[in-house]
Write a structure and sequence with these properties.
The structure is a single chain. By secondary structure, this protein is an alpha/beta fold. It has a single domain, classed as 3-Layer(aba) Sandwich (Rossmann fold), CATH 3.40.50.300. The protein is built from ten helices and five strands, in the order βαβααααβαβαααβα. A five-stranded parallel beta sheet has the order 2-3-1-4-5, with helices on both faces. Helix 1 packs across helix 10, helix 2 crosses helix 5 and helix 7 crosses helix 8. The longest helix is centred in the middle third of the chain and has 25 residues. The radius of gyration is 17 Å and the shape is globular. The relative contact order is 0.23.
Length: 197
């Protein structure tokens, strides 16, 4: 089974790239979705996060409020959050990878902003970075998450620079200013077809 790592900053277009991979028959593991499920279900992670960031990150029902957690973390405590969450996320993804192998999947894509820092990149046969200009990313984050420009910009700037993603990836997919989604998707399909041959 070929394992392709997809990384890059939020708002760059990883979802479009992953849809291209899905259309080619790849199974997709979304590290963010795994993380969000763990925030909902893992009592040990909840205890670790409230210990680090305080009870203020909980909602009225005692569940982790992702927006409150995000406000407690960005922009200066992201590494602290990652140190607490990455081991749990990696453990879950390892199980999903074994399951995909057991089911005979031809390809698995692992989507993770922190693919390199978490160690997930080492599990991949090839790593592809998806990048876009900062202003494009800020607009997309605002539209996607329903947040204001200042908060979207803080989130975007808290992430690694493009040079980091470029230097740790085997291939780069550029989602350029003015690209139509179908233009970017076509470039993604061309690359992924070549990688899966």
């Amino acid at each position: 089974m070929k394992t392709i790592g997809i990384t890059g900053p939020t708002g760059a277009g990883k979802t479009t790239a992953l849809n291209a991979l899905r259309s080619l028959g790849a199974e997709v593991v979304d590290a963010d979705a795994v993380y969000h499920r763990l925030l909902e279900e893992s009592e040990s992670l909840k205890k670790a996060l409230t210990g680090a960031f305080g009870e203020e990150i909980l909602d009225k029902m005692g569940k982790i409020d992702r927006r409150r957690l995000s406000q407690a973390v960005y922009p200066h405590r992201l590494e602290e959050l990652n140190a607490l969450t990455h081991p749990a996320i990696l453990s879950e993804i390892a199980g999903l990878k074994r399951k995909a192998e057991g089911e005979g999947c031809a390809a698995l894509a692992i989507d993770a902003i922190a693919l390199i820092e978490s160690g997930l990149g080492e599990w991949c046969d090839v790593v592809v970075a998806v990048l876009a200009p900062l202003e494009v990313r800020v607009r997309r984050i605002m539209a996607r998450d329903g947040i204001d420009e200042d908060y979207a910009r803080r989130r975007a700037l808290a992430q690694k620079p493009d040079t980091f993603f470029r230097s740790h990836s085997d291939h780069t997919l550029e989602n350029r200013e003015g690209d139509r989604p179908e233009d970017f998707e076509e470039r993604a399909l061309l690359l992924f077809r070549a990688l899966l041959e």
